[in-house]
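User: Structure tokens for this complex, please. No commentary.
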Amino acid sequence: MYAQMVDTGANKLRALEDMGPEERAFQERVDADVKIEPKDWMPEAYRKTLIRQISQHAHSEIVGMLPEGNWITRAPSLKRKAILMAKVQDEAGHGLYLYAAAETLGVSRDQLVADLHAGKAKYSSIFNYPTLTWADIGAIGWLVDGAAIMNQIPLCRCSFGPYSRAMIRVCKEESFHQRQGFDIMMTLCRGSAEQKAMAQDALNRWWWPSLMMFGPPDADSVHSAQSAQWKIKILSNDELRQRFVDQTVPQADYLGITMPDPELKWNAERGHYDFGPIDWDELYNVVKGNGPCNRDRLQTRVKAWEEGAWVREAALAYAEKRAARAQKAA
Amino acid sequence: MERSEWPLWEIFIRSQHGLAHKHVGSLHAPDPEMAIKNARDVYTRRNEGVSIWAVRSADVTATAPGEKGPLFEPANSKIYRHPTFFPMPDEVKHI
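Assistant:
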């Protein structure tokens, strides 16, 4: 998930009859569920919005490695450590699929990374929270990856071919992430009273930020209508959030832990769970850069990029040297 | 800023079921060996394949969307190329 509040540059929708012939043909293809491919004509705003959305998604995968990487050296067993490493490696892979999808729109990966490092591009708010205990690794897999799956499955049907194909690959792998998280939670909840308390504490801290991952309420989501018309957003923020709550509450019941929400209860009439108000100021504050870990996350990314520069340059110099030698010999 | 970016490669994987190599995505690598190594890590973490091809993206020649009509439409009118064009009597077997 991982793309929140993506700016489309458009404030109102245009009807087919207000569009020029090229844009109209484009919109008709989108309406008919024909995929748009990189070399096809597309409105400039569609291209720019997709670059923003896909790169934000890619950055989230990469930054998302940090809170979990924090626990690789301290995983409670060799098995858990191997699993966590595989999961973090998957996130790197997901970031790469997505950067490659963004590059088909005519932007370079280095430019996207530079925008992240300069603070011009965003990543999901959720990764600005700290992983204080091992139970947080369970909560992230269960809740954060669960929320991500909820968002990404509809995106497999999005209008842009490369993004859709990347989402299909990601979704195939993501289910392992959610299950390994739930497995950690289950183990803790079946353990000692202290272990169960750890699981509850992690749920308390990750529940609300997980609900915020779906973005602002539909009423305040100014760009959703345009993104929906372009089919790069399939379900609304509130719809996805409700589905996530409905799916997750019974899982918490199974674990024997409770959501930190006194207003949460089943509404038989609606056929959904009602839940309490979300503190949107917290989301906007984290998106603005004032979450508990924003500065730390970005500093870590920039440091890794800068310290890896010599490797990237050396590999290229070596390739060039060998190519020159081969040419001479020929 | 870097001197320049690593070139882009298109990656093709053949699965173990005897199908042809299939395009799976792209990645950056400085040379052919690194392209293969990166492809293994990025695209075959779950036994997706037993063989990898890496091709520099710059070396791929592709059709342009504008050519779609002249290139592919002629096939539309040649329905006799499909076996179902020829109705067969029910009594005739194995054909």
